[in-house]
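Journal club prep — side note

Before the paper discussion, L.F. wants everyone to see what a predicted structure for a comparable chain looks like in token form. Sequence:
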Amino acid sequence: MTTLYDYIGEKDKQMEEERVKEEQSHNDFLAKMKKQKRLNINFTGFDGKLSELIDGIRTIPNYNNLKGYVRENILQDNPEISYQKLSNKTGIHEGVALVILYDLYNDKLEEELKDLDDEDIDFDFHYE
């Protein structure tokens, strides 16, 4: 005969298995995203201090306008464009193109992660 404790124990096991599967799926997704965006960064003026480059470029007065332009006009037609091609196409410095793509990539990743977090998780408990 199944007792309430057995029933609760089974549900706890199911919930833990689902949590582990979801966590693994999330980790696999993050690993896949990180693997896709490995770049060989080499351009004039870049000395390997990426954080300083990013902070400096984000202070450019029209940076947000450039970022919006790239998002709306360039990435719509060519979502896998490299920072070198973006630089050539728009006439902006390669460092600026790199940071714009970096920020747009992170914005997209944050949206996708937020969508995962916002999904309703339905814990179906029925006690009889």
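L.F.'s comment for the group: Residues 1-36 form one domain. Keep this in mind when we get to the figures.
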